[in-house]
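Fill in residues.
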């Protein structure tokens, strides 16, 4: 494991430790884009712990963090997704679950070089599961190598997904996709953390995943983990994942093609 992959794990655990201190004692809760898009003091405190852990090892690091308050509180450099190297962090992926004590929320940490993830870690805090990867060296769950499933048809697939915060047209779009994909599949799971959902494909717990209207910090670490477990991650346009991707579909290569075709049928109307 490279130095940056180890640093990603250390930082994710640091954020997770802070979240555990806040669990069940939610303060500073507010909404952002809508009533379902929440942020709490725990998100910010976790972010400070994550970036501080990375800066301790690499003092000149640059960061893109979901919660903007973290930059000033931690005294770290605000980066951009176009930086040669930048750490992209979601200090609490699954705030709604966290607020409601639903046991699926995570810390996602990724190191990007020239816009592509080269190291990453997703820490599922309630489950105490650390999933990490480095480019070209595979993915691991608590140290054990991962491989995504071999399901090739929707009829043999358990799928994962999530729902957008915007409950207007984007929500209606997702409902159309859900109706098309849930009928032939074994079933669909929705836990509220896109980072964990991506890791579930890497571990083989689910066979595929799609979601719309995501941000780079939701996906960067998980995309690398999926790809290093043998899976494929693209946008709905079929192009490889990049920091501009917002709608994502992931699975092993055979099922990915099936999922993508089904999604395109729905999108074509």
């Amino acid at each position: 494991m490279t130095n940056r992959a180890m640093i990603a794990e250390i930082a994710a655990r640091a954020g997770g430790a802070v979240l555990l201190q806040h669990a069940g004692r939610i303060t500073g809760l507010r909404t952002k884009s809508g009533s379902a898009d929440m942020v709490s003091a725990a998100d910010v405190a976790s972010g400070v712990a994550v970036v501080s852990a990375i800066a301790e090892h690499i003092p000149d690091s640059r960061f893109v963090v979901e919660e903007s308050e973290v930059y000033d509180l931690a005294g770290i450099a605000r980066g951009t997704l176009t930086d040669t190297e930048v750490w992209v962090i979601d200090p609490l992926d699954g705030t709604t679950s966290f607020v409601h004590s639903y046991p699926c929320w995570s810390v996602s940490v990724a190191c990007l070089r020239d816009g592509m993830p080269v190291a990453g870690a997703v820490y599922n805090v309630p489950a105490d599961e650390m999933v990490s990867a480095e480019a070209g060296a595979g993915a691991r769950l608590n140290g054990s190598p991962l491989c995504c499933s071999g399901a090739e048809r929707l009829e043999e697939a358990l799928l994962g997904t999530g729902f957008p915060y915007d409950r207007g047209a984007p929500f209606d779009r997702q409902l159309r996709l859900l109706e098309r994909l849930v009928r032939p599949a074994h079933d669909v799971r929705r836990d509220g953390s896109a980072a964990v959902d991506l890791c579930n494909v890497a571990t083989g717990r689910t066979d595929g995943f799609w979601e719309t209207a995501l941000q780079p910090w939701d996906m960067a670490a998980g995309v690398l983990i999926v790809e290093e477990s043998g899976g494929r991650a693209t946008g709905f346009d079929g192009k490889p994942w990049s920091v501009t991707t917002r709608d994502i579909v992931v699975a092993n290569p055979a099922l990915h093609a099936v999922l993508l075709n089904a999604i395109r049928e729905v999108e074509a109307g």
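The chain is about 35% helix and 25% strand.
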